[in-house]
Amino acid sequence: MGLELTILGSNSARPAYGRFTTSQYLNVGSQAFLIDAGEGFQLQLNKFGLKPNRIQNIFISHLHGDHILGLPGFLNSLNLGGRTKPMTIYSPPGLKEWFTLFQELSTGHLSYPLEFIDLTSNSSQVVLQTEEIKVTAFPVEHRIPTYGFRFDESLKEFNIDPDKIKALDLTITEIKEIKSGMDIIREGKRIPFQDIVFPRKPSKSYAYCADTNYTDLFLDLIKNVDLLYHEATYLKDMTEQARERKHSTAEEAAKIATMARAKKLLIGHFSSRYKDLQPLLAEAKEIFQNTYLALDGDKHLI
Amino acid sequence: MGLELTILGSNSARPAYGRFTTSQYLNVGSQAFLIDAGEGFQLQLNKFGLKPNRIQNIFISHLHGDHILGLPGFLNSLNLGGRTKPMTIYSPPGLKEWFTLFQELSTGHLSYPLEFIDLTSNSSQVVLQTEEIKVTAFPVEHRIPTYGFRFDESLKEFNIDPDKIKALDLTITEIKEIKSGMDIIREGKRIPFQDIVFPRKPSKSYAYCADTNYTDLFLDLIKNVDLLYHEATYLKDMTEQARERKHSTAEEAAKIATMARAKKLLIGHFSSRYKDLQPLLAEAKEIFQNTYLALDGDKHLI
């Protein structure tokens, strides 16, 4: 099916130079995920022609304003649009309380079921698994509880070559076994399932790491991803500031991508001190050549 | 000094067709007022070249999302910019609690003093009076407690013609009296103060009425304003819906402007059902010719 990522916002702390704060839209087949929810991201969905109602799951890394302030307006707009499909939001605890208070003050209600799932684990955990996708949340290192997310396409059953079904006169049980990757035995001889099925497309993966200090804490969890988004708030001459605020530099994001053996790196969460982002890109590319800037509206086919 | 209004957003309920939700920026001399705070209005300030730090007072009509959701991000951004000037927010009760919870969840702090003043009165009240401006809040009729605001330039002291000071040999006490508009008596004869002072520019006024049902409840309070903003969510064929949702039609806004003897009418808070706003304008103009649409970025010198 393929994963397709659209950047809705990439700026840290507050919008600047037309760049919205952090938010991403990940198409995963029959639905879309929202990753973080910076102020006004619903305007970006509209601008980039993305369908709000495809979103069924929202993953919030942490409760700083630049990652959550677009949420109440968006949830409200879905209600006005008469949505009935359920919505689930994964985030560190507190979001439900804040949204509920807003609903009370504005005497709002929702036309669809809304569920908040609190992320509290100190280790990684699979928070969602469907036929299409598996989502793993893992703690990263920031000033308040913060999670990264890894998205892996679920492996589909193997497709059997119909000619082989005939030639081998396969039983229903054998077909089931082969589809799940098991060999079969005929006249005491093992026939490898690979000889009977079509080659399968590899599962694609995306890892989102923001906001986080430079750390190898979660390195094992983002290994070999096809696309890695790692925050790069500052240039390396601001490393001290990065440590203090628990952020990373462009060089550090590139080091993580290298160590993780990621195929491609996307950097974002740019400090408002940088109007021109090219120096950040150049700094990362020196370490990890296949780096791109996360720019509002850019699409990345994973 | 003159009042200058800039429309930051004019759409009701949710952003649509590039129109932001309700927010206005009113320049009143040495400072600016923000009237309502729709999602992402800080992006509009930036786009229209308006200075966030000129804002020292914020007037919130009511706590529906389309009038408050831009507030947390804006207050946060001022902090990031190192603001030290105090900020005061006037609104129906609840906003402080909601913002405080957000600050707790995001462990945020502010670099400047922030005061929330709750509007609870059932009648009109002067909520702010400076040398430049007087602000009166008054209840309007909506689904939740909602206030309109009237802004009147404060009348300056009269300026005395210096030639007259000499010719009449005015005393310090007489000068004070004339400046405040009192006549003086010379040899038993009254000299009208108008003969001694320069003509004074009339005080300009602006009234903001949103969101509100069509009602004459506050008509006396918006009499003779130079500019009246009145919500016009629907066309008149939606009058039933307007009554039910406690909103007004374009025709009704125009009737209010006529009855209030306003000099100019600005209509806004457009339903997302209207992509083209010209029918709303035409409907209002049939009753009140001097009507304008509140369009994002438009400026009105009052």
Question: Helix and strand layout, with pairings?
Answer:
The structure is a homodimer of 302-residue chains.
Chain A: E1 4-9, E2 23-27, E3 32-37, H1 41-47, E4 55-59, H2 65-68, H3 71-80, E5 87-91, H4 95-105, E6 114-118, E7 125-129, E8 133-139, E9 147-153, H5 162-168, H6 172-179, E10 184-186, E11 189-191, E12 205-209, E13 227-231, H7 239-245, H8 250-259, E14 264-268, H9 278-287, E15 291-293, E16 299-301
Parallel strand pairs in A: 3-4, 4-5, 5-6, 12-13, 13-14, 14-15
Antiparallel strand pairs in A: 1-2, 1-16, 2-3, 7-8, 8-9, 9-12, 10-11
Helix pairs in contact in A: 8-9
Please provide a written account of the structure.
Two copies of one chain form a homodimer. Chain A is of the alpha/beta class and 302 residues long. Helix content of chain A is 25%, strand content 26%. Chain A has nine helices and 16 strands. In chain A, the strands form three sheets. Chain A has a seven-stranded mixed sheet with strand order 6-5-4-3-2-1-16. In chain A, strands 7-8-9-12-13-14-15 form a seven-stranded mixed sheet, covered by helices on one side. In chain A, helix 8 runs parallel beside helix 9. Chain A binds chain B through residues 13-16, 20-21, 39-40, 42-43, 46, 63-66, 68-70, 72-73, 76-77, 80, 94-95, 97-98, 101-102, 104-108, 143-144, 272, and chain B through 13-16, 20-21, 39-40, 42-43, 46, 63-66, 68-70, 72-73, 76-77, 80, 94-95, 97-98, 101-102, 105-108, 143-144, 272.
